[in-house]
Every structure is written in C-alpha cells, then in structure tokens.
Design goal:
The structure is a single chain. Helices cover 68% and strands 6% of the residues. The protein has 23 helices and ten strands.
C-alpha cells in the first residue's frame, strides 16, 4: 500500500491515520477560507458594539463628572471622613471606567480602528486626583503638626520639620498652579492648607535658632532680655506659636549666630590646646653616641605659625571675649615655646660648631681654659637632650619657662667663649696672615686638628690657590706640594710641621716662594723643552716670558748702539717655531694633565706673538720707547743671592711674589683683560704693593 502523491509504501494502520488527518486538514482549510471571507463583516459588527459601549462609558463618565463637581462645594468645616469616602468612591468608579476604556482601546488597536481618547474620563480622573491630594495633604499635615505642637522645641528634629514643610509647600504650590491653569476658583480647603503651611514655615527660623547646639546659659539670658519676658521651661512649639516668637525671628537668629561664632572661637582654642598637648620635640642620635641632637623642627615651626595666627584672631575678635583670659594664658605659653625652641636651636648650632674643635684632646692643650668652659656647656646640653629623649612632650619640658632661662644662660656662656677665643685667633692670624681667609669656626678646626691630613688638605686650597695637599717624609716633615691638578713641587728644603699650625703654614709659604725663585733663576737662561714634566708649569711660563723680554731688549740695545733699525722678526720666528712644537705635542696622545700644561703654554706663546707683532708695527728705536714700555715684561735683576724676578711696565718695576699656582686653567687674553691686567699692576706699583 502506498501514498498516492509520493508512491511511498506504508503499512495499513498508518495509512488509515493518514486518511483521517487528510480529511481534517481539508475541513480546516474550508473553515479558514470562510472566516477570511466573513472577516470584514465581523469587524464592522465589533466596531458597532464598541461604539455602543463607548456611548455607555461616556454616559457613566458624565454622571461621575457631576458627582465630582458636587465635591467642589465641600468646605473646611465639612466632615473629613465623609469627604474622603466620597472621593474614594469616585476614584473607584473612575478606575472601573478606565479599565473598560482600556479594554476598548486594546480592541481598537488590534483591529486598526479609530482609537477613542476618552478625554472627559481623563479630566475627571485628574480632578479626582487633585481633590484626593488636597484632602489627604490636609489630613496628614494636621496629624503631623498636632504631634509637633505637643513636643518640646529642644526635642524637635528641625531638619526633618523643614524637609516635610518644604515638601508640603511644593504640594500647595502645585495645587494652586493647577487651579490657576484650569481657571478654577481656589477652594477654602486649599487656602486653609496654604495658611497652615505658611504659619509653620515662618516659625522655622525661630525653631532653628532655639535648637542651635551652640546656645549657652548666657545666650538664653540674652534672649529673655531681648523678649522682655522669660521663656517657659519646657518650651513647646504650641507656646512658640502663642508667644508669637516668629515676630522676634531676627533677634533670635542674631543670638544664635553669635553663639555659633563664639563656639567656633572656643573650638579654635581647644584645637590649639590639643595640638600642643600632643606635640613632641624630635631628637636624633648625635655623632657621639653619648648624647642626642635636635631633629627636624619643621613641624613644630609650622604649628607655632598656625598657633600664632589663631591666637591673634582670638585676641582681636569680639566673639572671643568670653575666653580672653584663657587665650592670654596660651599666648604666654606660645611665647615661651617659641623662645625655648629658638634658643635651643641657636644654642645647638653654636655648640655643634665648637664641639668638633674644643672637645678634642688637642684643644685642651691649645686652649685649656676655653676647652674646660666648653666641657661644662656640653654637660648641660647632654643633660637637657637626655631629658627630652626620655619625655619629648613640649609642654612637659617647658617647666614654666625655666628651660628657656637655662638655655639662654648657657648660650651666653658660649657667646662669651667665642669672645675669649677672638683675641687668641687674632694672634694666630697675625702670625700667619693667610689665616684671615678662614672664618673663626674653620680656623679653630684647623688649629686643633691641623696635624690630621684630611683636615689639613681640607683648608689648604682655601689658603693657597695652587696647593691641594702636602707630601710628608718618613720623619713627618713636609717635602713637597701637590696642586689640585696633581702637579708636584718639591721643596728645596723640607719644612718641620711639629709645632703650631700657624707656624708651619708660614714656613710652607716661605719654602714655596724660595723654591719657585730658585727654579726660575736657575732655568731662566736655559732653553727648556716644552714637554718637560719635571719642571712646574709656572716655572716654564715665567722663564719663557723672561727670555722673550731679554731677547727684545738685547735687539733694541744692539740696534741703538749700531744706529740701525732693530729687526725683531727673529723673535717672531722663534715664537712661531715654539707654537709649531706645541701643536705637534698636543696632537699626540698625552695625559689630561699634560694636555692642560701644553694648552696653557700655547696661550702664553700666542699672547707673546701678538705683543711682538704690535711692537714690530710700532717700530721702537730703543728700550725706552713707549712702543716697548707699554708692554708687560719679566726680567731678572741682580746676581747671585740678590737676583730676583721683576715685572715691569713703563718705567716702574714690581717684584714677582713666587706664589705657586699649580696647573691653572688657561685664559685667552683680550684687549679688555690686558687693560685690566695693566691697570692692576699700575695700581700696585703706585701703592707699592707687592704681587
């Protein structure tokens, strides 16, 4: 057996079910086809039925509107419960009508009919909503205010009262605005609610003033005086209304505002007290572990500044008169704290400057009396700082200003100690004038610790431009000077350094000058190689200048004797040869120190070349011509032990001072620097000052 359409073989039972289903499908197709043909007629009938229902709903809406209109005649004196029942019944009927209207609207939307707006129903609903809002608001407001009026004012939550009052103020304004838009006459119920809200709203400033937590007994007395009668106790909101206190709102607000400002002043003073009760003096370990030193006082200084500003405000504020006595007390404490911290800081600075010097064993030998006095100050400071370390609270250390007096007294002793040291230091400076270059504190350290190499080298560069450190022999004597650039100047005679620092520094100076003079005199006539590292750069420089000056004078003298024009081109040629040699040397790979020496010599030779060109151009006739005398020259005068180097300009001579300069930086001479150089030398010649 097969299905005819598809020739699919099936069993007999399945075929019977297939035949039954096929008949049902055909029947359903006929039913659907008939329904589609009848659809427009059915929709038309449905639309007619809906229109009929709409007419019935409009009739019910009109009846409901008449009932709502009747509610407009309700007055404040009407029975509240009866009015609410009528409104609730109207609202229930309106809800029923709205449900039916919603069903109709859904059918109209489903079958794409013209949708009915039910405007009359909407207006009735709005009217009912407004009236229910009015009567409910009135009932709720009366219930709230009845509770508030029975409470004491101090127990009222004024913030909550203000919030609720503003909420009902919004409802009243909404109802008034709606009535105005609908051009309806305002009912006496609405006006009554408005008057109730206004009445409480004008009492809010009074309630806020009377419940201010800043009010003190003196403020309540001030209020009684201003009102002309005492306020009852306890004071309720009903009594506030009876006494018409809202007419005195400005006075009450002014008293409350004054109380707030006074409380703020009290809180400021209280904060000052709390800050200083908790503040501590910071201390840290000193270099010597047996004592302490002050830590960072920045936090205390900031607190002092803020406290000073606060106390100044309190002393000059009319709202802080009631705490003036306490403010003056803390002003005095502030002055003591500030003076104590300042005195401790200044004392410690003075003490720390002298401690490394006067606490050494050498100090007791050099300055025995002063070292003993300083030991007493050290014992005092150690005792004070130990006490502070044990109890660092600021207020507990003041001791009513006793600490300030003690620190100031000991500071006077330190100042006197410095005064005592001043003549002694002056004597040392007179012995060695170079010591005038050091302040008292540095000089004290040098005098007491000068035998230590690191301390000695620390101050040598400040006393001598060209000396960075000293070289000592096995016997402890000074045998050589080393410049900051590590150039060595071996002294002609070693210097004994076993006595006072001022003595052997003076002998080092003398040895330096004697050694330089000996080297310059010895090599002045020799043609020294430019790359000779065994001879100090300063000696090479001065010797080359002496040779240049001697050559030009010899040429001028010979030409003058022979009555011919001097030929200085040989000098210029020699200078050019020296420049070429120096250029070749500096192009080679040399050390930094060697390069600095060569650079310095190149600058020297260049300045001599420029001076030679100027002399050739000016054509001097003899050594007395201004064309030659205007230039700076270096010459050796005298012989043997009396020989000395002199610097000449014009007809004046100035002795060379033989100050060791080491390998100083080369500076290019310009017309301005040359004029300045000549001006300084001329001034020295005029005032007989040796360079």
């Amino acid at each position: 057996m097969t299905i005819k359409e598809h020739e699919i073989p099936i069993i007999y039972q399945v075929h019977n079910k297939y035949e039954v289903l096929q008949k049902e499908v055909k029947r359903l197709r006929r039913t659907v086809r008939r329904s589609m043909m009848e659809r427009p007629t059915l929709i038309k009938k449905l639309e007619q039925l809906l229109e009929k229902e709409i007419e019935e709903l409009d009739g019910e809406t009109a009846k409901l509107a008449e009932q709502v209109q009747a509610l407009r005649f309700l007055r404040v004196t009407s029975d509240r419960e009866e009015a609410m029942k009528m409104l609730e019944a109207a609202d229930s009927r309106a809800s029923t009508i709205r449900a039916q209207a919603t069903t109709i609207t859904q059918h109209q939307e489903s079958f794409q009919m013209t949708i009915c707006a039910f405007k009359e129903l909407k207006e009735v609903e709005e009217e009912i909503t407004l009236k229910m809002l009015l009567w409910k608001s009135l009932s709720q407001w009366e219930a709230l205010t009845e509770d508030w009026y029975q409470k004491e004012v101090k127990n009222l939550d004024v913030v909550e009262v203000r919030k609720i009052t503003f909420e009902y103020r919004g409802k009243v304004d909404y109802l008034l605005k709606t009535a105005q838009q609908q051009q309806q006459q305002q009912s006496d119920v609405l006006l009554h609610l408005k008057s109730l809200v206004n009445s409480l709203e004008e009492k809010l400033p009074v309630l806020e003033a009377l419940t201010d937590s800043a009010l003190r007994p003196r403020h309540w007395q001030e209020i009684d005086t201003a009102l002309g009668q005492p306020l009852p106790s306890p004071l309720t909101l009903a009594q506030v209304d009876e006494m018409n206190l809202h007419t005195h709102a400005h006075t009450l607000q002014q008293v409350a505002h004054t109380a707030q400002l006074q409380r703020e002043m009290e809180n400021r003073l209280k904060q000052v007290v709390q800050d200083w009760e908790a503040s501590t003096i910071p201390v840290v370990d000193y270099v010597r572990k047996d004592t302490f030193q002050l830590g960072d006082l920045g936090a205390l200084e900031s607190l002092l500044l803020s406290t000073d500003i606060t106390l100044h405000l309190l002393l000059h504020s009319q709202h802080a008169l009631h705490i003036k006595q306490e403010t003056v007390k803390w002003k005095n404490i502030h002055t003591i704290i500030k003076g104590t911290l300042t005195a401790m800081k200044e004392f410690e600075e003075e003490w720390k400057a002298l401690d490394p010097v006067l606490s050494t064993v050498t100090a007791h030998e050099v300055f025995p009396l002063q070292a003993t006095m300083f030991a007493a100050s050290t014992a005092f400071w150690t005792k004070v700082m130990t006490r502070v370390a044990d109890d660092s609270l600021v207020l507990s250390q003041l001791r009513n200003g006793m600490l300030l007096e003690e620190v100031l007294q000991e500071k006077t002793h330190l100042t006197g100690l410095r005064v005592c040291l001043a003549p002694l230091l002056s004597m040392r400076r007179q012995t060695c004038p170079r010591l005038f270059l050091l302040p008292d504190t540095d000089l004290l350290e040098l005098l007491t610790k000068g035998q230590e190499a690191n301390i000695c080298n620390k101050y040598l560069s400040r006393l001598f431009t060209g000396i960075g450190r000293l070289i000592r022999g096995q016997d402890g004597q000074i045998v050589a000077l080393v410049s900051p650039q590590q150039e060595k100047l071996k002294l002609a005679k070693s210097v004994v350094a076993h006595h006072g620092v001022e003595d052997w520094i003076g002998r080092v100076e003398s040895g330096m000058r004697a050694t330089l003079k000996r080297l310059i005199i010895k090599h002045a006539k020799e043609h020294l190689p430019m790359d000779n590292l065994h001879i100090p750069l300063q000696v090479l420089d001065i010797c080359r200048r002496i040779q240049w000056s001697t050559q030009i004078i010899d040429i001028l003298d010979n030409a003058y004797d022979a009555k011919v024009k001097p030929n200085l081109h040989s000098v210029l040629t020699k200078i050019e040869d020296d420049l070429n040699i120096l250029q070749e040397l500096i192009n080679m790979k040399v050390s930094v120190q060697h390069e600095s020496r060569l650079t310095y010599l190149i600058i020297t030779i260049l300045s001599l070349r420029e001076a030679t060109k100027i002399i050739i151009a000016d054509k001097p006739d003899n050594r007395w011509s201004y064309a030659w005398l205007q230039h700076l020259s270096h010459l050796i005068n005298g012989e043997g032990r009396r020989a000395k180097v002199q610097v000449s300009i014009s007809v004046e001579n100035l002795d060379y001072c033989y100050e060791y300069m080491g390998v100083s930086e080369a500076s290019i001479q310009t017309p301005s620097t040359m004029r300045a150089h000549h001006a300084l030398i001329t001034a020295a010649l005029n005032h007989k000052i040796t360079d």
